[in-house]
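Consider the tokenized backbone below.
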């Protein structure tokens, strides 16, 4: 959502860099050569570059902690930058902080251009100010990022806010993420759902044509109605040795945590996406860690 140091860095990058013979990105030696160096050659001098060693002309820093999205070990969360197992996923967002092997599959801050696909409902999503927004409450809408090959086991974190739900209670009202998306009839979901004047956490799997649509839920996890405050969702998929898959789903809102887990006899593999059903909502980001 934030771009820091952009103006200063652009001015510095355009006006004061003097290339010499030491190769790309270096500057003429002098008393302040270290400050004037552009190590990655992206036009932003190191002391004003949010990722001094990653070519990053966009200079995006979604969480505003002065570490750019392109080099932040937890790009969605202000954190000290610690990574004890050195796998590139910060301790604050590593599902296994003491075991190497996880990796950041991607951080999606929904800045244009966004290359996600509308797979359910019309393509009525808006991408503005670093958020994906669905304003319609009349139907289900689902966006998927198509990763090839599929990611397999994932931990997904997303921040979202529901602004309005349809008053028609004949349709299910929910907002959250999807994981293990195969096609519009086969995917797992985790999110916040309407439950009378309260809201609940749902985890489940849509598998029409195989087992039907089934889910588990944490009824009345939140005393608040579904629209309102921002919520942070965390979901983990796993597949056991016998092939059974499960999805752990937790939502935190105003310091209150609700969770639900759904398991069934099918592996979890496929793409990650976001989904609304009878609800208008904005997604601030989606952060995905892939694990072996
Ligand atoms: Ca630079
Ligand atoms: Ca950052
Ligand atoms: Ca780590």
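A designed sequence for it:
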């Amino acid at each position: 959502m934030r771009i820091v140091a952009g103006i200063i860095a652009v001015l510095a990058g355009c006006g004061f860099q003097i290339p010499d013979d030491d190769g790309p990105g270096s500057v003429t030696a002098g008393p302040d050569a270290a400050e004037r160096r552009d190590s990655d050659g992206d036009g932003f001098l190191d002391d004003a570059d949010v990722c001094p060693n990653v070519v990053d002309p966009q200079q995006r820093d979604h969480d505003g902690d002065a570490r750019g999205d392109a080099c932040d070990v937890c790009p969605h969360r202000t954190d000290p930058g610690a990574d004890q197992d050195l796998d590139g996923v910060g301790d604050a967002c590593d599902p296994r902080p003491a075991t190497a092997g996880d990796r950041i599959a991607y951080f999606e801050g929904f800045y244009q251009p966004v290359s996600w696909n509308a797979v359910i409902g019309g393509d009525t999503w808006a991408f503005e100010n670093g958020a994906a927004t669905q304003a319609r409450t009349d139907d289900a809408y689902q966006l998927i990022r198509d990763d090839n090959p599929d990611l397999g086991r994932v931990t997904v974190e997303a921040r979202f806010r529901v602004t309005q739900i349809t008053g028609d209670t004949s349709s299910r009202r929910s907002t959250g993420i999807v994981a293990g998306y195969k096609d519009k009839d086969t995917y797992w979901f985790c999110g916040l759902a309407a439950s009378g004047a309260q809201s609940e956490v749902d985890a489940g799997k849509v598998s029409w044509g195989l087992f039907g649509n089934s889910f588990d839920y944490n009824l009345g996890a939140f005393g608040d109605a579904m629209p309102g405050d921002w919520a942070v969702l965390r979901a983990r998929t796993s597949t056991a040795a016998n092939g059974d898959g499960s999805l752990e789903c937790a939502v935190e809102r105003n310091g209150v945590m609700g969770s639900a887990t759904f398991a069934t006899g099918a592996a979890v593999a496929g793409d990650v996406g976001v989904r609304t059903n009878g609800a208008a909502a904005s997604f601030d980001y989606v952060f995905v860690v892939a694990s072996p």
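The domain at 108-291 is CATH 2.60.120.200 (Jelly Rolls).
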